[in-house]
């Protein structure tokens, strides 16, 4: 199998980790990661979703927070705070190293794809971690208080604002990372991880030619709903769906993906939604979708791949 | 009194600290610091001498190594090493913060003078820490193995090479920092700290118009010899003097400063050199010059200022 996973942050990284465990050869996995959350802080280029995937697949991730590195300390940030005032974004000492090395290499002219591959190799990560694009894209969140940078909304203001609109600045000029297109073309299964459909999977699908490539792919596409029982496990997906006029449900996620995704994987608690999703022209697989352990991750990954294979077999 | 100190790294920072302690109003002190050792590493701009002065005057300095911050950890660098290979230059976690913040502000268009003043203010430093220039200057060391960057020679190769030549690249185009010229003009005493006369004080004096400003200054200039009993307390000053054809002695340092400096302060062990130094047209003050404690620093600073005042009084 050649597997492509589309992922944002924590939930996406967990299922990507499951796919890494589920595959006989982890190098058969390419994880195409959202970069529209990327931002600069203290002159360093930070890619929160890439880093969450990087740390999760390398076994370094902090299992409690989901972001950052387990056991990381905050000495550098504390000193930065003495110079610049109270930090609003947490960066651990080891995490700083990632941003320092990445920033140096980007300034030296390497693409984000090349830098990401190099960082992943240094940490022993076998799957390919592929940014959706090497070009800058910035998610902007419209709120009743005005337009906010994504991290300002998400971290700075703890995603407490009502979301009235979402814009991906720069998306029209962004080109898909070549490795992403190649992986999609040669994939035998494509999995949309349980990431936020608006601001994690949404930007990836909005990169020009990316959706075309997914539609043209011979591989079946399955998506795991990040909404379970009308709630998001983590992050602002629920408020965001609601603010943008969507129902907060797995059916609503399916509707966003309709026409592109062949099969939705939803949680047992959402079983009653299956007919509505099937009415959108998708197959539905019902299972436990909450990943509390590594075994949960591997099991959901295996079910996702089996579901994709079943769809491929049935045409 | 308005005091200007010219300083490089560890020895210079110690006497600058003494002057800070000796003055009733520490804001009466301006420390003009060598920047020809500055270099970029991991995309960050590092100013070793400025940082040594900054950390020493703020009380953060590591008293054992002389460089870096006391009690600093090396978590960020260890992780950088996972990405880039074994580091050759030690950077602590808190030290990294200084370089990160400085680099961000320099890239944002602030001058090194402005950035340094801001960092010093954040750490509660009262004297002005003034880079010799806001323009880039790079000390290059000629050795039998070829020309080396200063830090490559000094840290990377542990100053083990024979020094056959020293060049300050960029010096002809460097302008003195305006604050340095202003401080020199209004000074009532000028002290050359016991820093390396070739690669610490040397670059400062080589900045166009700096030597003219010192010669034009109404304040007496006194210099503390960094060579004691034919040896340097720290660093490569002895090998460097020898390699460049100088005698390794306080008299040799005096000869380098002849025509500019009014008085030399030498150690008791070098008492016999006094007539040779006086023959250069300088006054000589003999005292204990090794600064083992804060009290030693303050005492040497007080003697330096008293010596300068005596020179001023005697015309």
How would you characterize this protein structure?
- Two copies of one chain form a homodimer.
- The two termini of chain A are 17 Å apart.
- The first copy, chain A, has 13 helices and 14 strands.
- In chain A, helix 12 (274-278) links the parallel strand 13 (263-267) and strand 14.
- The first copy, chain A, has a domain at 3-37 and 127-136 and 171-314: Rossmann fold (3-Layer(aba) Sandwich).
- The model of chain A has no long low-confidence stretch (mean pLDDT 96).
- The first copy, chain A, is 41% helix and 18% strand.
- In chain A, the strands form four sheets. Chain A has a seven-stranded parallel β-sheet with strand order 5-2-1-9-10-13-14, with helices on both faces. In chain A, strands 7-6-8 form a three-stranded antiparallel β-sheet.
- Chain A has 315 residues and is α/β, with parallel strands linked by helices.
- Chain A has helices at 10-22, 48-57, 75-84, 93-107, 112-122, 150-156, 178-186, 201-206, 210-216, 237-243, 250-257, 274-278, 294-314; strands at residues 3-7, 29-33, 39-41, 44-46, 128-131, 138-143, 146-149, 165-169, 189-192, 221-224, 227-228, 231-232, 263-267, 283-287.
Jot down its keywords.
homodimer; 13 helices; 3-stranded antiparallel β-sheet; globular; 315 residues; 7-stranded parallel β-sheet; alpha/beta; Rossmann fold; 41% helix
